[in-house]
Amino acid sequence: MDPGFKVSCMEQISKTEFKAHALEVLREIEQSGKSRIITDHGKPTIEIKKLRQRKESPLEILKDTVLEYDAFDEPVAADDWQNA
């Protein structure tokens, strides 16, 4: 790794520098958990961050998300569905 290149203290990095040091940047993100912003001509364009997988079960994630549940025994019509 280039001695002048310090991944851990950078929050933004240019596409050119990211290309030259991609593996080091990705390893630092994995280890530290800090995200990095990739810039194009000084403008932020991409954010790279560590994937945080939920350890909760799907039922725990959905718990308390239903606010109202009327007429549970009636069929659901196509018009009742809305895009989220």
Oligomer: single chain
Global Rg: 22 Å
- What best-fitting shape do the alpha-carbon axes yield? elongated
**What class, by secondary structure content?**
alpha+beta
Distance between the termini: 45 Å
Strand content: 15-25%
How can the largest sheet be summarized?
3 strands, mixed
Strand order of the largest sheet: 1-2-3
Q: What would you note in describing this structure?
A:
This protein is 27% helix and 17% strand. With 84 residues, the chain is of the alpha+beta class. It has a three-stranded mixed beta sheet, covered by helices on one side. α1 links the parallel β1 (12-14) and β2. The protein starts with 11 loop residues before the first strand and ends in a 22-residue tail after the last helix.
List the helices and strands and how they pair.
Layout: E1 12-14, H1 15-32, E2 36-40, E3 43-48, H2 58-62
Parallel strand pairs: 1-2
Antiparallel strand pairs: 2-3
Task: Throw out a few tags for this protein.
2 helices; 84 residues; alpha+beta; 27% helix; three-stranded mixed β-sheet
Provide a brief overview of the structure.
The protein has two helices and three strands, in the order βαββα.
